[in-house]
Each structure stands twice: as structure tokens, then as C-alpha cells.
Amino acid sequence: MSKLTADQLKNIAAKFGTPLYVYDANYITAQYAKLTAAFAGSNTTFFYACKALTNINILKHIKAIGCNVDCSSINEAKLALLAGFEAGRVLYTSNSIHFSEIEEAVSLGIHINIDSISNLEKFGKKYGHGYPVGIRLRPNIMAGGNLKISTGHDKSKFGIPVDQLNEVLEVVAENNIHIQNLHIHTGSDIKDVEVFVKGIEVLFDIIPHFKELSSIDLGGGFKVPYKTGDAETDIPLLAQKVKEAFDSHPVAKGLQIWFEPGKFLVSGSGYLLADVNVMKETANTNFVGLNTGFNHLIRPMFYDAYHEIKNISNPAGPEKTYTIVGNICETDTFATDRSLNEIREDDTLVFYNAGAYGFEMSSNFNSRHKPAEVLVKDGEAILIRKRDVFEDLLRGQL
Ligand code: LLP
Q: Is the minimum distance from the CB of 261 to ligand 1 under 6 angstroms?
């Protein structure tokens, strides 16, 4: 998939200033098309995990291309409805929530996956058979790029452990709950297709206990390449394995397959543009200090994530070694000893793969402003979120 060019990004930076998040709508469309093409042979539906990037203009684009939406909080669900999604296209998969959020989700008429026996019991007492619901199970599978983003292992807080199935069955029977969906999500950055196959095996053992299922939800977590040569989840292979498994199962073959991709749809669509404030040469390190920091893109510091960086102001400059840092009052190193085209003060750098969990995990730490966001669509760069101004820092304060 092609990327926005350095020239396009330079023009956008000149027009809107930096630090700036830029998203490419065409990229999202193409990623979604890859999924639907690969899974065309099976009854599969995709719910965009909007925790990756919730700007309402992105949600509207996701809706326009025909994808559904998965939400991790009631507010995300409300944003999705505001973006125009019909309730039947909204899925709500949350954890550690107060039961009142589930009540609110019921009042919105959206799909719900319940993540604890305690809430399942409350749900059963209040709604009985009246509102079909899903349950999130913990398959006890270790998977994902690192422990912080691994959610299906046997010490994970997420979902109801499969080893507690008997308790689930008791609660379901006692309250005559209509279980329509079984859900698992084992983590993020999962490149190995076999992880999904293992998850399917776990669920297939459980299917016979639930007679009213209409779908099986395999979560998200498809790995995207963060650097050249990086592996990504083999989507056609995954589609083939999933189809084989479901087609050969007497009950599962009649069920719809759900996935909840976040990163896969939006990671590569996003760019963070930042300017160089300060060059600092020391005995052993050549620091580049930017007008951004972990308040805007925390992935490198939080997960040791690699983000490709380029100097779009001097793309033909000689390569030198730099350590790229932010302007926050803590060590916020984006990249150590990275080889980049010669960098000068006021140059603009771009961080790639900044679409997922970039702006979304940003903060006002150090009382710095959050960046603006721009969407490139139909050849036009449109401002979709204003840069914070000083008053935003005081909003809500008394
Ligand atoms: N479904 C559920 C229930 C999830 O918890 C998540 C992600 C997804 C779907 C989407 O996963 P994806 O396709 O985006 O990998 N902030 C981390 C990733 C955390 C993901 C949390 N849950 C990062 O920047 O790597």
C-alpha cells in the first residue's frame, strides 16, 4: 500500500503546523478491502476496534466503507452512534466496568460482550432471556507482541477464564440468558496465524454448551509491519485456516465469524509530523530534540515500539546517527542511534505507523497541548481536530 509522499507531508505540515497527526483515508479503505477480499469465502464480518483511533471523522469513514465498529467504553459506543452507525453495527467489548454501563449499552440496543461472571449474573437477573448477549472468554493462550499487549494468557484480567465454564453455565441456566456470541481476544501484534487456530479450537470445545449462538468473535490483534522487512499477519492464510476450521464443524459452519481489527485498519494510515527544536551534540550522542514527546506518541516508551522516522526536510542529506527525543521532563526517547538524513534545527521529521494508539493515547502531560489532526481524503487535506489552545488546559477546572 502506498504511503503519503514526503512532499505531500511537507505541504501539509506547512499548511497546518506541527506537531500534527495526519491520516490517509485511502489507506484505511485499502486495508479493509484486503480483509474483505481474503475472507470473501466465509461468513465473516469486521468490527473496527475504534480504541485505536476514535476521531469521529475516522469513524464516519469506517462506516462509509461498510465496516462495523467495536467499542471498549460506553463513550466510544456513543461516538460510534453519533458517527451514524446503526446500533446493530456497534459492538461493545469492555472490562472491569460497572453494571450501569451495561445497562446503558442495552438501552442503546448495541451488541454486548460481557467479561465477568459477576456482570453476567447481574445481566441475567435484570434481562433474563430478553436481550441476546455475548461473553468474553479468556482462552489461557499466551500471544501478542509483548506482555503489556497480551490479553488471553492465564494471568490476564480479560474475559472469563475458560476453566470457569461450569460457573458460567450455571449462571446462564439459572437466568435463562440468551448467549448469542462467544468472544476471545488474545492480544495485539499477533503474527502467528496458529494463535487464532488455537483460539478457535478452545471455542469449538465450548460451542456445544450454547444452543443459541449466532456468531463467534475472534477479536483483533493482526500484526502490521513497523519497519521494512517486518512480518505481518498473513491474512489470506488466516482466512483459509479459519474457513477450513469453520466449514468442518457441524455447528460453527452455520455461525458468523467476527473480527475486531484496530491496528490493521489504521496504523499505517497515520503519520506524526514534528519539528526539530534543538540539536545537542554530546561526547557520545547526537540528540535531536523535537516539539513533541511521549505526551503525543507513547508507544516507543511504553512498549519499546519501533516507529520508522524520516527527515522530510532533507531527504537527500548525508546519513548520520541520531538519538531522537521529545520535550517532556522525563526520558522520552523515540529512537536511539538511528541513521537518518542529516538533521538541522527547524527540519520536519515524520513518524510512520502513527495511526493506531497514537493520538488516542496522547495526553496533556507537562501542560502541553495535544496536536491537531488532519485527514487526507479525495486528494484534500482536511483539519479534523484543532490543535489545543491554552484554554483547553483549563477546561473543567474550577
Ligand atoms: N478487540 C479487543 C477486545 C481489544 O482489546 C483490542 C485491543 C482489539 C480488539 C484491537 O487490537 P488490534 O487489532 O488493534 O491489535 N496500545 C497497544 C495495543 C493495545 C490493544 C488493546 N486492545 C499498542 O499501541 O500496541
A: yes
Predicted model pTM: 0.97
> Does residue 136's CB lie within 6 angstroms of at least one atom of ligand 1?
no
179-234 pLDDT, tens digit per residue, is 999 999 999 999 999 999 999 999 999 999 999 999 999 999 999 999 989 999 99
Instruction: Tally the domains of the chain.
Output: 2
Q: Judge if 163 and 277 occupy the same domain.
A: no
Residue among 226, 260, 352 whose CB has most ligand 1 atoms within 8 A, to mutate: 260
Same domain, 251 and 271: no
Q: Rg of the chain's alpha carbons, rounded to an integer? A: 22
pLDDT band at 18 (very low <50, low <70, confident <90, very high): very high
Which cell goes with 117?
Answer: 461472571
If you measure from the C-alpha of residue 357 to the centroid of ligand 1, how many angstroms do you get, rounded to a whole number? 9
- CB under 8 Å to 294, separation ≥6 — which residues? 300, 301, 302, 326, 328, 330, 332, 365
| Claim to verify: residue 92 and residue 160 sit in the same structural domain | yes
Q: Assign 1 a pLDDT band (cuts: 50, 70, 90).
A: low
329 catalytic per annotation: yes
Same domain, residue pair 113 and 190: yes
First to last CA, the chain: 48
Range of the domain at 123: 39-261
Ligand 1 atom having least distance to the Cα of 260: 9
Residue 17 and residue 242: Cα distance in Å, rounded? Answer: 45
Report the separation in Å between the CA atom of 83 and the middle of ligand 1, taken as the mean of its atom positions: 21
Centre of ligand 1 from the C-alpha of residue 205, in Å: 25
